[in-house]
């Protein structure tokens, strides 16, 4: 046995790492980190405008989300 190859596998090379599919959790983490970076650069007024545009496009979903948020806030305040 050669000691220079011990502990080294073909999966350790950078070329092989690029060929392997990424873990779904890593992809989700990377997307969340990118979204947080984007949100840090956005002003509050831009967030409000974006939210209002979204509610105008999807009014049913907007009302449902508002009702759920109101319910959860009410539950938190009651306790």
Can you describe this structure?
This protein is an all-alpha fold and 79 residues long. It has one domain. It is 73% helix and 0% strand. It contains 4 helices and no strands. The protein is extended. The mean pLDDT is 80.
Task: Describe the structure concisely for a colleague.
The protein is an all-alpha fold. The protein contains 4 helices and no strands.
Observed structural traits:
4 helices, mainly alpha, 79 residues
Topology:
Layout: H1 14-19, H2 24-41, H3 44-57, H4 59-78
Helix pairs in contact: 3-4
Cα gyration radius (Å): 23 Å
Contiguous uncertain segments of 5+ residues: none
- What sequence of helices (H) and strands (E) makes up the elements? HHHH
Q: Count of helices?
A: 4
The portion of residues forming beta strands comes to under 5%
* Tally of distinct domains: 1
Provide the residue-averaged pLDDT. Answer: 80
**Helix proportion:** over 70%
| Approximate shape | extended
Instruction: Note the gap between the termini.
Output: 67 Å
> Largest sheet, described in full?
none
The secondary-structure class comes to mainly alpha
Number of strand segments: 0
């Amino acid at each position: 046995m050669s000691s220079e190859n011990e502990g080294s596998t073909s999966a350790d090379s950078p070329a092989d790492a690029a060929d392997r599919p990424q873990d779904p959790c890593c992809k989700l983490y990377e997307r969340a980190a990118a979204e947080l970076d984007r949100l840090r650069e956005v002003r509050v007024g831009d967030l409000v405008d974006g939210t209002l545009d979204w509610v105008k496009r999807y009014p049913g979903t907007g009302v449902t989300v508002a009702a759920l948020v109101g319910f959860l806030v009410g539950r938190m305040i009651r306790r």
